[in-house]
Amino acid sequence: MVRLITHNLLACHFRDVQIELREAEFNPEFLKGFMPKLEWKALVDAARQLGDTTLPLEVPEMLDDEFLKNLHHVLLEIHVEEGVMSCPNCKHDYPILNGIPNMLLAEHEIG
Amino acid sequence: MIPTPDLSHLTAKDYDHVYEPAEDTFLLLDALEEDERELKDLNPSISLEIGSGSGCVSAFIGKILGPSVMLDVINASFASPLTTRLKRAVDIILFNPPYVPTMPEEMSDAQDRRGISGSWAGGTDGMNVTNIFLDQVEELLSEQGRFYLVAVAENNVPGIQERMSRLYGLRSDP
């Protein structure tokens, strides 16, 4: 059940994902407070990759209700259950199984 | 009194692999409950638990800060995949580490084998695992952020406090 909000904090790209949509309680204050912590372009890219085009390319001046509802859906209601996260920095692929990304290196990958 | 998270879905078989919440877990829950007011006043947006085991502690902090809190799980080495993006961004860090003093080999073997003893075997002074994470803490904590660490006397608590103050300017209460 890794949500896009968490994925945005891991700085990797998705590949071959299976998602599930699950409703979450809408909390606009939380979203407004979290905005500064988001890597906006990465979030928009990830959302588009998963089929959601509701987010604007640039952070809007006004965080109106419609924007916040779209943001809420993208950040908190799209769950990646299976897939791969590809890290451009360390050039590793990390699997997501049962909604849990496994960021541990295998024995042979260390050192 | 906030009730302890429901553990009834976990069986003895699970506890072969996952740390069964014990006195040290409940000590941490008590500390968090005592700080309920301050924690709420932080208006926290991100809480990070290292070594979450059954998830009991994170579920509990979710209850304190509720009503709706999102919990995601990542299998990782400490906070390593998050340190880039979470610089100075984590409001609450929680860690009930393997703190029991053991031979260093016992600690590293436990970690290598990913066995249940990895949940308590702490190596020299019970600090081998904790020490690694202590160096990640300051970079992760937000301005008003708090780090809750479970420790025993053998870990030399005043020493930990002194080191975190000297190296990182972090205040503490034992």
Task: Describe the overall structure.
The complex is a heterodimer of chains A (111) and B (174). With 111 residues, chain A is α+β, with helices and mostly antiparallel strands. Helices cover 31% and strands 24% of the residues of chain A. In chain A, strands 1, 2, 3, 4 and 5 form a five-stranded antiparallel beta sheet that branches. Chain A is elongated. The mean pLDDT of chain A is 91. Chain B is of the alpha/beta class. In chain B, 36% of the residues lie in helices and 11% in strands. Chain B has a three-stranded parallel beta sheet with strand order 1-2-3. At the A-B interface, strand 1, helix 2 and strand 5 of A face loops of B.
Compact overview of the structure:
Chain A is of the alpha+beta class and 111 residues long.
Features:
heterodimer, A: 111 residues, alpha+beta, 5-stranded antiparallel sheet, 5 strands, B: 174 residues, alpha/beta, 3-stranded parallel sheet, 6 helices, 36% helix, globular
Number of strands of chain A: 5
The largest β sheet of chain B comes out as: 3 strands, parallel
Q: Kindly state the mean pLDDT of chain B as a whole number?
A: 94
Give the CA-CA distance, first to last residue of chain B. 22 Å
Shape designation of chain B? globular
Give the CA-based shape of chain A.
elongated
Q: What is the CA-atom radius of gyration of chain B, in angstroms? A: 16 Å
Oligomeric state of shown chains = heterodimer
Percent range for β-strand residues of chain A: 15-25%
Topology, number of strands of chain B: 3
Gyration radius of chain A, rounded: 15 Å
Helical content of chain A (DSSP H or I, runs of 4+): 25-40%
Write the H/E string of chain B, N to C: HHEHEHHEH
User: Count of helical segments of chain A?
Assistant: 4
Q: Residue ranges of chain B: pLDDT <50 for 5 or more in a row?
A: none
